[in-house]
Amino acid sequence: MKLVRFLISREGFISVFCYTITAVFSFLSFAPLSFPFFVWVAPFGLFIIEKRNRGEWKKLIYHGFGFSILFYLVSFHWVYHMTTVFGGFDWYLAVPIFIGSAVLLNFKFPVYLLVFSFLAKRVGRFFPLIASVSILLSEFFTPQVFPWYFGNVVAENQILAQNAEYASAYGLSAFLFFVSYYLFYLRKPKNFFQLFSKFLSKHKNIQKKFLFAGLGIVLVLVLFFGNGYYLFQKWSAIKPIAERDVLVIQPNAPLEFRDGRNPAEEIRNLMTRIDTMTEMELKKSPVDLLVLPESGIPFFTTHDTEVTRYSRIYWHQFESLMAILSLRHGTNVFYNELDADLVPTALPGRISRRDVRMYNSSVLMNPNGERRNSYQKVFLLIFGEYMPFEWMYALSGQTGQFAPGTNLDLIPYYESRKNPSSRTKDLHWEDTMTMGPAGVREYYSKDKVEEKQLGSFLPLICYEVIISEFVRKFQGDPDFIVNVTNDKWYGNSVESYQHHTLGRLRAIEFRKWIVRSTNSGTSVFTDHLGRNIDNDFTPIETTAVIRKKVQVIPGEMTFYRLYGNLLSYLYMGIVGLVLLFYAKRNS
What contacts 3, CB < 8 A, 6 or more positions away? Predict the structure, then answer.
């Protein structure tokens, strides 16, 4: 009842209006709508609530939860779809999970209000550094499974986005709140005329304060826009050392079969579809790399081991088709699969189900149809690939029980076959009914080429691409980044565009192209400046192919790859000392 009375009161109306400003304007500023003007006023809702409730800690916490829930409803409404489809939860469990995750995973809002209010009370004056350092603290130290930082929204501006090479999304968040707080202060004509009158004042002390404040905002704007422009020009002039022809197949594979469809028939149709789409695209024009998405062929593996046969995930026809694709067209094939091994504590000589570990894995097959390096997903998705507590698996039959991988090596790929196949009749999916992997390789044995490594790429599965701190742990200098994902769990929603846009900054941080391969859309190629090539996105919930020439940018360890979030930490430390000085002086 208290909540209802609050919502129908004047105070409640103003509060909900403030929540809406931040939630809706942030959403409008971000992909796929991308109206960048709104981002500069999106923080106003937070500023108004903090100003009206400064020092009232309990109210600020409640208001922070209000921002969290409304922000989640507007921007992350697809999480409910994921919870019911991906997680398999009934609605009466999905609703509390949605609300709980809205609060927990957007805890940055109450933290921001508390930190901002605390520092503002201590300093006791207009000080935009408070706004920027507060957002840094709240984004750094709060849990976020889908880390949509305000800096990612600023990065919709192509020039400002280049600053991510040094400061990642965190630095852009600090920049946004610094500028936005100035705009918030000047939103009233009275404040603007007060500043102007102070400038005309005869008191030198007042003039110095005005000049200091004015020069501060000008310096920050020049720094970010100037550096962004410089980096944009610098990297635009870089000449690639090579180009790789890459084809992405988007097969729109089924997620599950709870609707009564025949699994065997659906999988046969899927394999035929992949085979046909590949041949139509490559029959006359081969590529260096063919990429299939996460769960492009679900439920199975091509890794033939005692453990995978025991687990019934090895399927010889899957391996045969991948060998056919690589041998028929003489190309590298990178595809996703399940994989399995035994825990270190397993007893030798026998296999039990509790000793088996499952992995979300991607593997490369070379132009000779031979299985080479694989990558097991390290950063698993909660409620989809694992549960935080063992007892929770009983709530959802859909949730996987995957183990995280440990290897962060790049994936080598090899020189493609230059000549067309010598066979007068090529193999297709239907031939896998009677011909195993060894038979396929024997059939194309005359087309075998010497294995020469052409380069390597950085493999990422699903949401790993949006975790900048994780991606920079990979060692070596990749030619480009390949992100395979399955966004079909979210239906025809904005999630796929948001997912890509959050990952797009990795292209700038690494100065490498990104190949994004999705099961059902949106697949896209992004260059080292963070630009989506030809703005060519595949449609959602359909089959499609997309093919581009990927440029290999000369290897250079960027500042972010070398030092990570060092600048943000330095900024928080320096501003913290400045604020401490003001707080002590005021006390």
Answer: none
Which pTM was predicted? 0.92
The answer to whether residue 451 is catalytic is no
Count the alpha carbons within 13 Å of 90 in the hemisphere toward its beta carbon: 3
Q: Is 18 a catalytic residue?
A: no
* Range among 66-70, 349-353, 364-368 rated most confident: 364-368
Closest to 499 in 3D by CA, of 149, 160, 31, 73: 31
Residues near 203 by Cβ (< 8 Å), separated by ≥ 6? Answer: none
**Residues contacting residue 49 through CB under 8 Å, at least 6 positions apart:** 15, 18, 60, 63, 67, 113
- DSSP of 507-535: HHHHT--EEEEESSS--EEE-TTSPBGGG
Q: What count of other Cβ atoms lies within 10 Å of the Cβ of residue 97? A: 18
Is residue 377 among the annotated active site residues?
yes
Q: Which residues sit opposite 515 in a β-bridge? A: 482, 525
Catalytically annotated residue among 108, 377, 512, 548: 377
Give the separation between CA 557 and CA 472, rounded to whole angstroms.
Answer: 10
CA distance 364 to 379: 20
Choice between 82 and 283, residue whose per-residue pLDDT is larger: 283
Q: In 3D, which of 324, 362, 286 has the Cα closest to residue 547? A: 286
Q: Model confidence over 90-102: pLDDT tens digits?
A: 888 888 888 888 8
Quick one: CA torsion of 573, 578, 580, 582, rounded to 10 degrees? -170
d(CA 460, CA 551) in angstroms, rounded, equals 19
Q: Contacts by 111-114 with C-beta closer than 8 Å and gap 24+?
A: 111/64, 111/137, 111/138, 111/141, 111/142, 112/46, 112/64, 112/137, 112/138, 113/46, 113/49, 113/50, 113/53, 113/60, 113/61, 113/63, 113/64, 113/67, 114/57, 114/60, 114/61, 114/64
**pLDDT tens column, 366-408:** 999 999 999 999 998 876 677 665 656 556 655 668 899 999 9
Please identify which of the residues 156, 294, 337, 385 carries the catalytic annotation: 294
Distance of CA 421 to the CA centre of its chain: 39
d(CA 287, CA 367): 11
Helices (H) then strands (E): counts for the chain: 22, 11
Q: Which of 462, 488, 495, 548 is catalytic?
A: 462
| Cα 458 from Cα 327, distance rounded (Å) | 24
CA distance linking residue 36 with residue 502, whole number of Å: 15
Q: What is the SS3 assignment for 146-198?
A: CCCCHHHHHCCCHHHHCCHHHHHHHHHHHHHHHHHHHHHHCCCHHHHHHHHHH
Pairing of strands 481-485, 453-461: parallel
CB contact at 8 A, 408 and 474:
yes
Structure tokens at 149: 């930082």
Residue 305 near residue 356 (C-beta atoms within 8 A): no
